[in-house]
């Protein structure tokens, strides 16, 4: 198996609310919800970098589709990271997330590894890191 990540799927409690958070609150482009809630196929996709997508999938539908127990609300066993090109962009992105309704977990601060980072939770409790790493230069968007 080649090491490749194509889609990150997050289980959400309310698909329309989650889409509004990422689309309207964070400004991420999407074609909206596709599929049918009745058939457990309703999902929304957001294009990230080329070849990578974020999918939002109702918690119950994810359990049905994957054949697993429904994950509890407000839990996540992973951390999603959004790196930025400049130190000051960490605070800008954190403020944007807060206005969109995110819960700030840790305000931006200098890190032990030489960068600058803050943490927020989206409306379903998924934790996000917003980080500037001087060792990973990025072009300004």
TrEMBL record:
Against InterPro entries, the record matches this protein to: Glyas_Bleomycin-R_OHBP_Dase, Glyas_Fos-R_dOase_dom, VOC_core
Going by the entry's taxonomy, the superkingdom of the source organism is recorded as Bacteria
> Which Pfam families does this one have?
Glyoxalase (PF00903)
**What Gene3D superfamilies does the record point to?**
2,3-Dihydroxybiphenyl 1,2-Dioxygenase, domain 1
- Keywords noted in UniProt: Dioxygenase, Oxidoreductase
List the molecular function annotations (GO) for this entry: dioxygenase activity
Q: Where is the VOC domain?
A: 4-133
Q: Which PANTHER family match?
A: BLR2520 PROTEIN
To which species is this protein native?
Thauera aminoaromatica S2
Q: What is this protein called?
A: Glyoxalase/bleomycin resistance protein/dioxygenase
């Amino acid at each position: 198996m080649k090491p490749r990540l194509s889609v990150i799927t997050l289980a959400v409690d309310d698909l329309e609310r989650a889409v509004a958070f990422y689309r309207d609150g964070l400004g991420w482009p999407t074609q909206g919800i596709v599929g049918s809630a009745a058939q457990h196929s309703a999902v929304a996709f957001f294009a990230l970098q080329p070849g990578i997508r974020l999918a939002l999938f109702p918690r119950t539908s994810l359990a049905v589709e994957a054949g697993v127990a429904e994950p509890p609300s407000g839990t996540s066993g992973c951390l999603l990271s959004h790196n930025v090109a400049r130190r000051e962009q960490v605070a800008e992105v954190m403020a944007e997330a807060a206005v969109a309704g995110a819960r700030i977990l840790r305000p931006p601060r200098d890190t032990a590894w030489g960068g600058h980072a803050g943490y927020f939770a989206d409306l379903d409790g998924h934790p996000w890191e917003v980080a500037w790493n001087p060792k990973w230069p990025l072009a300004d968007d």
